[in-house]
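User: structure tokens for this one?
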Amino acid sequence: MTPQDDLEPENSSHSKREKLSSSYKTGRQLQELTEIELSRSKIIVLSLDGKPQRIPLVTNH
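Assistant:
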């Protein structure tokens, strides 16, 4: 704990954590969507024995 934590009410600190957590999760989801769009043609699936298997992708254009 920091001295500043002692000055802030508990529920204020809790709401800040929830807001930060929510923002992080939203940002992470948007980043994942962007990464998928940027590298869509490079997506492959590995079989259980480690051999790559290509996935046929349908373009949206």
